[in-house]
Every structure is written in structure tokens, then in C-alpha cells.
Amino acid sequence: MLQKKSQVLPSFQSIKSLPVDFRFVGSPTSEQSENANLVNSNTACLSVPEKNDLENGLVEGAEDSVGNDVNEDSPYSQAAILVEQRPSVGDEDLDTVPTPLPLVSTFHRERRWADTSSYAAKKKLQSWFQLSNGDWELGKILSTSGTESVISPPDGKVLKVKTESLVPANPDILDGVDDLMQLSYLNEPSVLYNLQYRYNRDMIYTKAGPVLVAINPFKEVPLYGNNYIEAYKNKSMESPHVYAITDTAIREMIRDEVNQSIIISGESGAGKTETAKIAMQYLAALGGGSGIEYEILKTNPILEAFGNAKTLRNDNSSRFGKLIEIHFSETGKISVLLEKSRVVQCMEGERSYHIFYQLCAGASPKLREKISLKIASEYKYLRQSNCYTITGVDDAERFRGVMEALDIVHVSKEDQESVFAMLAAVLWLGNVSFSIVDNENHVEPLADEGLTTVAKLIGCNVGELKLALSTRKMRVGNDTIVQKLSLSQAIDTRDALAKSIYSCLFDWLVEQVNKSLAVGKRRTGRSISILDIYGFESFERNSFEQFCINYANERLQQHFNRHLFKLEQEEYIQDGIDWTKVDFDDNQDCLNLFEKKPLGLLSLLDEESTFPNGTDLTFANKLKQHLNSNSCFRGERGKAFSVSHYAGEVTYDTTGFLEKNRDLLHLDSIQLLSSCSCHLPQIFASNMLTQSEKPVVGPLYKAGGADSQKLSVATKFKGQLFQLMQRLENTTPHFIRCIKPNNSQSPGSYEQGLVLQQLRCCGVLEVVRISRSGFPTRMSHQKFARRYGFLLLESVAYSQDPLSISVAILHQFDILPEMYQVGYTKLFFRTGQIGVLEDTRNHTLHGILRVQSCFRGHQARAYLRELKRGICVLQSFVRGEKIRKEYAVSQQRHRAAVVIQRHIKSTICGKKYKDMHQASIMIQSVIRGWLVRRFSGDVGLLKSGATKMYVYELQEYYPIPMHWIWFI
Ligand SMILES: Nc1ncnc2c1ncn2[C@@H]1O[C@H](COP(=O)(O)OP(=O)(O)OP(=O)(O)O)[C@@H](O)[C@H]1O
């Protein structure tokens, strides 16, 4: 059963406050070079479009409902916004929801739904009916007579209700559909029921046409991790998810070669930052954990520590908006649209920036001593909200995480110490107190621990600090006079100094992060930007912070409207196609109320801020005087006024508006910082001076007498916002709407009234309608012909004009005529139609690739075979030649060996012969001697041969070798 509350304002009851100043910090390598329209982020004010641009009538049809004035200010420098004033076609008068919910104009709501109850009543279908307390209940129509029907809810009761109050329910088979577009009956209770059905089953993501609705589960849900990432990457999982949106962004970036943006919006605590992190995780995983996305994730603790705080609505509320740009295969860059007044003021139960508590809890004793740090409760800035811890969060542990992240972005240990010293200086500044020194209530800071520690930490003289906090130098003619400050002026000066030091520190850190992300990388490729900006806020008491935040959200809503409604429908008109117009809540009037010159809220605020005698009351009166006839404005009693925002009416209390808008950091304070011996204050001072020296467009304020001029906070904020919008305008947007299901941050609780309120605020339901009735996919004839022309069976494809080719393709694939429209320049398709062609294209491409790969494989193999044969022949030649050479060498060696052998053998034989010869002679001589001696010296005997005879005789007795005989 759905329960609808009669008073649906719960989402805007919180009392969160935001700091005053908002700045847009870009890295030195900002977009300027890429886009001439963009200006240096430090002089964001320059991006405010000049009057000439506006005179070109770029915002047509954006008429103020009262004065028919056209808003001259627009961040959109190109396209005209044509709000077609055609009568609405269709069933606008069929809405049957009986009790209008607050905050949405009756005009619009009356035309909200396309469904009718009469059919359901006739067919006795299940229907939603509303109880007197506003709850929705499902029942079966038993009978209908006249204007009344008898209905039976599940509890068995029988009730009589007005037939016109019945809202048709969808058949059970449609329970929990992935995409709200699939609902047969598109009405509020059915949408709420569908979302709740899914939420109860941990399916927190649902598509609403092109928009992803994400309901905060306030608990871990099993939807993330590598398996899911893989599944979405491989397209094996298609249920709605942040991964799917991110994947689509990547694919579109590659396909269309256009930068993409993922715009995450929703109230505080709705889950924007978590969603941004999930998107980053997907990108990081695709990059294999080494890409820039991974680095950005690793540096996240720094931005969270310095830019997030505990609020009543969210323990980890981002107090700045950030745009993360991921340049593929090159570098990433983080830009932040941030604010700072939380440093000096914080509501009961909330906390200042996490980093202060983390520092106090986690600093080592050595660091503590070095920067004279005490526990958090010793500091007035932290003490005022009486909240020091967050349940389940270990600040000391987080501090270690921050230090690690600072190491990752290469902030040296020395610089880290300086950063912590600056934080301690900010805390100690809050402890600086003043005493009245004369009867004109002028004050001087007490020379106590606070003052001396601040002077020590920033590296200045105590006397100089004292002077900077209690006096103001003014130039009158050629003379400089010193004016003493009253207590409130001195406190403002002190707080302004603290805020400036903190915000400059934040800027400096963002710069370091951006620098580290840009190291060694070039930026030339496509990018995906993820925008996570603070959501619409409405509290019991709304101040200047809410004024700025809600204005930013109004602009963002315009971006949403522009892309999902205006540009969409404008394109239909321009291309002359036949379509059913869908009405939506255009917030252009409200934007005009803020931006119109000279009688818009911002202009009047700036004008009043320039008057020395201007007060919050005179400002409020001026608004009432000039804007009372504006339908979006309502003057309230005293200093208050109300604005009808797209998300509801918010009453602002102008107390402090002028002071916060002027936000004067006196030149004396800047000079003090520049004279400090520590390097960070010097950098801060030079940055501030550089900014004030830049040419500015917009109302200027004198800071520190006549010495310096600066833009008002509101003007700067507007300039930064325009810059942001221009940046987003150059991208294809993908929207994620985060929804907070309850205000108690508890899992499982789903407050329909709260959800419905948020769905209405962001026009999700209208988006579904426009997606159902519109043609969300479009492609120029040329592109279509180029992309799908090769699918044509006939060879006419390349000989005809793109339109004929496109039509031929449509015919060939039997696309039903109601599923597309042929415009003058483009083809328009209903949801999912292009997918059919895209699938065929992919299949065909795969087939082509397969054939190509087979053919190439065959070619490669043949080539390889040929190559092998060639190599073998070559090898045999080479080997033959080699062997022949080796053989010749061995032949030569053989011959040489024979010669050598011969020589050796002959030498040996010669020697042998010689020895034998000598031995024979010796033997002969011995024998002859013996014979001579035997024959008594008769030599003649020897000569007559008697010797031989004798020897033969002798041999009978003494065997003598025969050759001896020969010798003898
Ligand atoms: N997908 C999610 N899964 C689990 N918890 C979530 C998820 N999204 C949000 N949460 C829970 O909701 C809390 C608030 O979310 P988050 O800080 O992202 O909100 P926010 O919209 O960015 O708020 P703010 O505008 O105040 O910064 C988170 O701290 C977390 O506990």
C-alpha cells in the first residue's frame, strides 16, 4: 500500500547552513585553450556574457511571466531556446489525482498525466484510490454508477469513491519494471509503487527514460564490485545501474567523438557523492586500476576531509560542488565550486570541515607541539556547534588516510606541515578575542595565547597581526588614515581572514591535486566529466548560502530541462517532424528573477551592496518594491522574501545578505599575509592580489578603503556557474537523479511523500512521458547513411544521396513507420529502434570481421608457407656453400696433414736408418775386429771370402742374424 502524505514538505525541513563564499577553482591547465568561450577560472566573473551577446536574442521565448522581459543573461552562447507556445495535444485534462500536493503548480499538475481512469472503471481493473488522509491504496473496482465507483481494497472492505479520483494501476506483470517507460499506466502512485517495489528488493536503480533514478539504500547493497563491472562491460547485465550509465557515456564518447558529462543531482544526503564515486570506480576498473580515475579516487580523501562536513542531514555532506573531468588517456582534472563560511559558523549538531577534527584527533605529538595544537573542544570555531564526533567514524584513522593521500599527490612533508599549521592558525584565529580600548567602543585583540600562536603559525609579527585585526587603513586624497574598528567589525575582519586562509588553502590543495593528475600528460583527447553539486536546500531559516545554492540548482535544472525538453522539442520543430508536445515546468521565469538586469535579485543585491548605507532591510524593501509583481517572487514580512523555485517555495531571511555578499577581506589582511615569513600565506596573498588586479566585469566593491576592488560574492558565483554551465554545454549529458527515501538516513524506510516530492521537483515523470511520446534517438541523414549504408543489399548505396540511402535502409529493415520520423536534416527514432539497427550493424561488422580474419588468416598462412619454402631454399644454398667452404678447408688440411705426416715419417725413417747404419757399422767393425783378432791379424783372409765361410760355420755355434752376415 502506498501512503501519501497530505503535507508533503518533509524533504526541506532541515536546518543545514552553508558557508558564504563560493568559488570555482580550476587548474592552471583549464579549458581555456580548448574553448575560447571559457575564461580563466580565477576570473570566473569574466565569463558573464556581455550585453552584445544577449542582444542577439539567444534566449527567445524565455519571457518573464509578468513583464514580458527577456532575460539578458545566459550561459548558453549559441542555441536559441524556442519555447513553442503550441496548445498541448493529448490528454492533459485527464489527471485524476484528487489532492494536489504542495509546491507544484496546479497548472502543471493538471496536465501531468496521460492516463485516464474511465477505462479502468469501465473494465473494472485494479486502481489506486486516495484515502482522506492522502494515502494511496490499491483496490478492485466492483461497480461504477454515475460519478461514483465501489471499490474493494485488499483488506476486504468495500468503499465508495469518486470515479474521477481513481488512478489506474498496472497489471502485476509490470511490477518492478526496469524502466518506468514500460509502465502501461504512467501515474504517480504507479511510479512510486514501482520504485518502492524495486527498492524493497535492493534494486535501487531504475530508468526513467534517459534518466537514471537512484534511491539511496542507506546500507551496503550487493550491486558493486568487479563481477558487476565485468558484467556491465561485457553487456551481459543490462539492468539500470550507475555502471551502465557510465558505460554508455564511454561508448558515446567513442562513437560520437563528443565529450560526455554525468550530471548527478539530488538533495543533500540523497547519495550524489557516493554515486559519483561508483561512476569513478567503473572508469577506474576499465582503466585497469592504473588510470587517472584511479588516481582521482586515491586523492578523494583530501577533498572529502577539506570539503565535507557533518550536517543534520548527512554525516558526510559535501559542502562544495565539484566537476571531475577525466581526459581519456591523458589527464584528469578536478574543478570545484566551493564555499567557505562553515569555517567560522556552524549550527548546533553539525560539524565544521572534517579535517579540523581529524587533525585534532590524529596529529602526532611532535606535530601537535610544532603547530601548538590542542583538542577540538579548545577551539571556539569547533565548540560552537557542540558536536565533535560522528558515530562510526574514526577521525584519527581518517587523518592518516589524508596524509597518505597528500603523499600520493606529492605534497612534500614540509608542505604538509605548513598545511596543518594553516589549519591550526585558522582554529586559533577563532580564539582571538578583543577588548574595548576607548569610549568609542573601539577594540584591540587581547595579546593572549590565541593571538601569539596565530602570529607564530603564519609567521608574522604579533604587533602587525594586532593592527590588521583592529584597524583599517583608508586613503583619503593623498593621505592614508588609520581607522580603528568596532567589536563587530573586528570580529568580521578576523573571521574573513580565517575564511580566506581556509579557502585559499583549499584552492591550493585542489591545485596540487590537479597538478599531480596532470604530471607528464597531455590533454588533447575526449573527456567525461562527473558533476556532483550540492542539492536544492530549504530550511526553516534560509540565508545567503541557500540563496546561492538554490540559484545554482535552478541553473542546473534549466540544463536538465534544456536538454531533455527544450532542445528536444526545439529539434522536432526545426526538423519539421510530427510529434506530440509535452509540457514541463520551465524554470526560466525563476532564473529571470535571479539574473535579470537591472531588476533581478542578483543585480539588486549587488546594487544595494555598493551603497555604504545599504542594509539588509533596505535590500528587502527594494526587492519588494521592484519585484512584487513577479509571479516567482513574494515579499514577506520584515526582512524576508520568498522565491518559487522549481522544487518549491523557499523563504529567505535577508539578515547578513549584504555583508556576506560584500565579503570584504581588507587589503590590510592581504598585506599581512604577504608579509608573513611562511610561504603558504605569501602564496595566498599573491593569489588574492592577482585576482583583484584582473579586469573585472560587474559591480565592484572597495576593500580596504580605496586600495583594492573586488567583485561581489553573488556576481562571482554567477560567473563561476556560467562557466560551469558552458563547460557542461559542450558535452552530451547523462543525468542521474538521486532520491532520498527518508529523512532519518535509515535503510528500508520509504516515505512516498518525500520520494514523490523529489520526483516532481526534478521532473522525472515528465521525462518519462517525453521519452515515451518523443523520439529520443536521432541521427543526421549523412551520419545514418554512413553508419548503416553498408548494410544495404543493393549496390545503390554509394551512388545516391544520404536521404535516399537512409530511407532505403529503413525499408530494408522493415522499421515500422510509427517508430521513426524523417526530418529535414535528421532521422528521429523511438526508444530502442536504433538498437535494432545497431545490433544488425554489429552482427554484420562481426561477420565482416570474421570473413576478413579468415581471409587474412588464409593469406597469412599462404604467405608463411611461401616464406618457409623460400627460407628453406635459401638455407640449403647457404648451408651448401658453407659446407663446401668447410670441405675445401678440410681438404686443404688433409693435404697438409699428409705432407706433414710424410715429412715426419721420412724424418723418423731417416733417423732410424741412420741409427741402424751406425749400428751396422759398429757391429761390422766389432765383428771384423773380432775376426781379425781370430785369424791372427790376416786381413787377406777376410778379403778372400773365407770370412763369410767362417761366419757360417760359426753360426752353427753362435746364431748370428742373417743381415748381420750381410753386413759383414
Ligand atoms: N549507493 C549507496 N550505497 C550505500 N550507501 C549509500 C549509497 N549512496 C549513499 N549512501 C549513504 O548515504 C550517505 C549520504 O550520501 P552522500 O554523501 O553521497 O549524499 P550527497 O547527496 O552527496 O549529500 P550532500 O549533498 O550533503 O553532499 C552516504 O554517507 C552513505 O552512507
Description:
This protein has 968 residues and is of the alpha+beta class. Among the domains are: 55 residues, Alpha-Beta Plaits, CATH 3.30.70; 133 residues, no CATH class. Helix content is 47%, strand content 14%. The protein contains 32 helices and 27 strands. The strands form eight sheets. The protein has an eight-stranded mixed β-sheet with strand order 1-13-12-18-9-24-8-7, sandwiched between helices. The chain has a five-stranded antiparallel β-sheet with strand order 5-4-3-2-6, with helices on one face. A hairpin with a 2-residue loop joins β3 and β4. The protein is elongated. Adenosine-5'-triphosphate binds next to α7 and β11.
Structural class category: alpha+beta
Helix tally? 32
Rg, nearest Å: 46 Å
State the helicity in percent bands: 40-55%
Spatially, the strands of the biggest sheet line up as 1-13-12-18-9-24-8-7
Main beta-sheet strand count, sense and barrel state: 8 strands, mixed
Shape: elongated
Binned strand content = 5-15%
Number of strands: 27
Catalogue the ligands: adenosine-5'-triphosphate
Could you list the spans in which at least 5 consecutive residues all have pLDDT below 50? 1-72, 78-116, 329-335, 694-709
- For the termini, the CA-CA separation is 149 Å
Question: Can you give the mean pLDDT?
Answer: 77
